[in-house]
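Final report, results section. Input specification for complex C-07:
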Amino acid sequence: MISATPGRRKTLVANWKLNGHAEGVEAWLEAMAPIALEGKLDLVLMPPALWMERAGKWLARHPGAITLGAQNVAACEEGAYTGEISASMLARAGARYALIGHSERRRLFGETDEIVSRKLACCLAAGLTPVLCIGETEGERRAGETDRVLERQLAILDEGGGFSPGASLWIAYEPVWSIGTGQAATPELVEAVLSRVRSHWAGLNATIHEEPRLLYGGSVSPANAASLVALEAVDGLLVGGASVEPESCADLCRSVIRALA
Ligand code: PEP
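Structure output:
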């Protein structure tokens, strides 16, 4: 049995994707901050980038409640890259984390492992914690290729990627077939995959102060969150659809907190 780092609070990351509305940012933060301030669950909001500063300003008036992350980050620090936002710009806007390699970016926007690797380096250089998303498609799973795919996606860590002792890393197992489909992975599968991820990390030379935090994402809902977050291997949950509306996200957080009590 592998286990999450003892004494570490579990985390819920709310990835709004291309959803929500500007005024909804404060409404969501106001609804979720009291839950975060109970101190039982760390909450990270990943709104569309345009609203990052808006959220950051609210959070500056309510320190310690919730932290901010970006859904995406440029693979370069500056230059002629129309439409991109760099890791250091995101950090200045208040972000502490950035998703890299989300399956929607890989599938819909051509994000290759090579690009993900450059994003990793940019995040580390800017002091952002990269949240590396990995996961197999339905076809890869059926073909028995899950391990091979995950190893390939994790291989970007093998070169060291600019890790310094002060860096931190999160890895989210998000099977593509479970994202937005209502079909979450079973607790057994999540345990098995995260165990392989920990072994992969243990085999690397990279030295950082904290073990990477391991998350699960894919159709997490108020109904299944408790059984997933309670797993020893799981440090937290990455939630898309169920995180956007404050009522649904609050229900989810409440069920997580009950499961951890
Ligand atoms: C995600 O996009 O990271 C995700 C987990 O989505 P959902 O919760 O909607 O499946």
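The pocket of phosphoenolpyruvate is lined by residues 15, 174, 179-180, 217-220, 238-242 (CB under 6 Å). The chain has a mean pLDDT of 93. This concludes the modelling results for the funded period.
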